Amino acid sequence: MEQINRVTFWAVVGIVGTAMGGLFAMSSSHAVEAAHGGAAKKEEVSEIKVKMERIGVGVENNKEMLTELKGDFRGMRETQSVANREILEAIRNDR
User: Fold this and answer.
1) Is 25 in the same domain as 53?
2) How far apart are CA 21 and CA 13, in angstroms?
3) Residue 68 has what pLDDT?
4) How far apart are CA 82 and CA 58, in angstroms?
5) Residues 1-38: pLDDT tens digits?
6) Considering its fold, how many domains does the chain have in total?
7) Are 51 and 81 part of one and the same domain?
8) How far does CA 52 lie from the centroid of its chain?
9) Per-residue pLDDT tens for 34-48?
10) Boundaries of domain holding 18
């Protein structure tokens, strides 16, 4: 194992060179293509992006409305609680 046979050396150099050449050929031949055949087109991506932004705005509006409704319900709950207490006090005082 101390020495490498000349044939083994050149075989390894040939395999590595072939692999590097194959990678270079593949990358240079695919560099001309715009995108993969199954990839989305730029127009489709732009349309999806616009739709996502609209959805984001809709979600933001819904969050604001829910926050307002939560405050309204809290006020209604407090009003109902006060009314219930008054009714119970009136019932107790009637006896």
Assistant:
1) no
2) 12
3) 92
4) 36
5) 467 788 888 899 999 999 999 988 888 876 666 656 56
6) 2
7) yes
8) 11
9) 656 566 677 888 888
10) 1-33
Whether 70 and 95 map to the same domain: the answer is: yes
Which pLDDT belongs to residue 37? 59
Cα 72 from Cα 66, distance rounded (Å): 10
Q: Is the pLDDT of residue 78 over 80?
A: yes
The contacts of residue 40 (CB under 8 Å, 6+ apart) are 48
Structure token digits, residue 7: 């044939």
Pairwise CA distance, residues 49 & 45, whole Å:
6
Amino acid occupying residue 37? G
Instruction: Tell me the pTM.
Output: 0.41
- The reply to whether 56 and 82 lie within a common domain is yes
* Residue carrying structure tokens 């009314």: 83
